[in-house]
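Retro notes
What went well: the complex prediction finally ran end to end.
Inputs used:
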Amino acid sequence: MAVIEPGDKIEIIAVKGIPDIKPGDDLARIIFEACQKNGILVEENDIFVIASKIVAKAENRFVKLSDIVPSPFSLRASKIVKKDAREIEAILNASRRIIRMRKGIFLAETEFGVVAANAGIDKSNIGKEDYLLLLPKDPDRSARMLRKRLEKLFNKKIAVIISDTYGRTWREGQVDMAIGASGINVFRDYRGSKDMYNRILKVTNIAQADEIASAAELVMGKKKGVPVAIVKHYLYDTTEVPAKKLNRKDAKDLYR
Amino acid sequence: MAVIEPGDKIEIIAVKGIPDIKPGDDLARIIFEACQKNGILVEENDIFVIASKIVAKAENRFVKLSDIVPSPFSLRASKIVKKDAREIEAILNASRRIIRMRKGIFLAETEFGVVAANAGIDKSNIGKEDYLLLLPKDPDRSARMLRKRLEKLFNKKIAVIISDTYGRTWREGQVDMAIGASGINVFRDYRGSKDMYNRILKVTNIAQADEIASAAELVMGKKKGVPVAIVKHYLYDTTEVPAKKLNRKDAKDLYR
C-alpha cells in the first residue's frame, strides 16, 4: 500500500492583521486580503488552518444569554454543577449526547460528533458580553465552503482545516485539534504497509489533521489575535476524508 | 501575567541520514553529525524533537521475549485478551497501573506516568525479531541528558522533546505527544491573563510540548526513517517544566 510520506521541511506562517470578525463577513476574502497585505505567497497545496471561533462568528453562531429560556432539567442541573442554567440549555441545544457532568463543566458530544467540554461553547475572545458563541453548525461543510472560495480567490488548490482547542484524557493542558477539514485526508494511514524492517504495520493511522491543527496553534497564540495560519510544503493525500471521521464511535473506544 | 507568545513563522526540518541506532550509541553525537552532513544550521533556542524509539534503543531498552517468564496472572490474562503472556509480563513490569484490558491491548500507566496502550512497548520498527522495545525508563531525564550533550556539541542553548505516538479518547487515529522534555516549559499557560477583549482567561493552558511533538511528526513519517526533527524560530519559555507534568492525576480527570 502506498502512503504519501510528508516532506522534509515545512513552514508555518501566521496570517496577521485579520480584523475582528462580524456575522456575515466574507471570511475567505478577509483571509485573502490579509495574505496579500502580509506579502504571503500562497502556493499549490498550502493548508489554511482557521480557528473555529472566527468561522463561528462569520456564521453568526452567537446566542444571547438573556434570550435563552432554560428547561426544568437545565434549572435543576444548574444547581448540581454550579453553572448558569441558560448556558446548560445552550449546551443541550448543541449536543446529541451528555457524557459527564462535573462542577462547571458538561462533557458533551456535539451535534456533529466532537466530544468537547461544554459542547465547545465559548465565552472568551468573543467580544460581546451576555453572549455565547457556539461552534460552527457543520465544520466540515464550513471547511469545504471556505476551501472553494479560497481556491477561487488564490487560483490555487489548497486545503482547509478548522481548528479548536481541546482538553484530553490523561493529559494536562489543551491542544488544538481539527473539527472541520476539506481538501485533505484527515488521516495518514500506514495500516497494511511495511516498516523499515519489512514488518507489516498493524495499527498506525496518523490523525494528520489534528497534528496540523496543533502545529498551526504554535504561531496563533491566544492573545495575539492570529486566527489563521498557513502550513506550507507539507505533502498529503488530497482525498476528501473529512474531520467527522476523526470522531470515534463509542463502542470502539478503549480509552473511554 | 506575562505569557511568551509564539513567533509568526516557524520551520520544521527533518534530520535525515540517522543510521539504525544500537544500544550504547552516542545519540547526541549521531544527531550532531547528521545535522552537519545535512547542512542544518542549528541556532539558539532550536527545539530537537527525538522519537522515543531511538532513545530507547540507545538506552538498550530491548527485552528478549524468550527470556521472559510469565507469572500465573499473565498466563491467565493472556487467554482473556489473546495476547502473548510474555508481552503481558513485560507490560506489567513497565507499569504502575493497569487501567483497562481489551482484546490484544492493555491500557496502562507506565512507571513514569504516561497512559499508553501496552505501556508503550513496541514491536514495529525495532529491527529485531523476538524482542520488545520498552520506552525509555525516565524520558525527562533522557531529554535532559541529550539536551546537555547537544548544547555542548552545538555550543547553543536548545530544548529537547522526546516524542511518541499515542491514541486518544474519543478520537480516531494517533498523534505524537511529548513523553520527555528539557529546556522548555511543556505548557504555555494563559490562566489569569487577559484575552483580546480584556476578559480574564480562566482555563487555557496550552500543552505546547505535545503540539511541538505533533508538529515534528509531520516531517518524520513512519517509513522514512527520520527519527529527529528540529523546530526553529518558535518562541517559548525556557523554564524547566518537564513532560511528567503533562500526566494528569486520576482524580482531576473529567474525560476519564
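What we learned: The domain at 62-133 of chain A is CATH 3.90.1660.10 (CofE-like fold).
What to try next: split runs per interface for comparison.
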